[in-house]
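Q&A log
Question type: sequence-to-structure
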Amino acid sequence: MSKSVTFQRFGALTPDIAIKGLIAGSSLMSGAFIAKRFVLKLNANVFRLVMDGIMIAAGLTMLANAFWSTPII
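Response status: OK
Response body:
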């Protein structure tokens, strides 16, 4: 709550940004709640493979973003 007041005083927390934050936060919470049912049903080995796939995809995405967004001098 104190962060919200501080950011609002400096003009960084407008009502538009607060609403977008609430939407993003509620989406993340509901997604985690829904996904929990599926994750608990997974076999441990399948879960490891899914997590490995997610980590590989995230790493490749970050590398691709760094490669294509770096200016060439």
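Response note: The mean pLDDT is 88.
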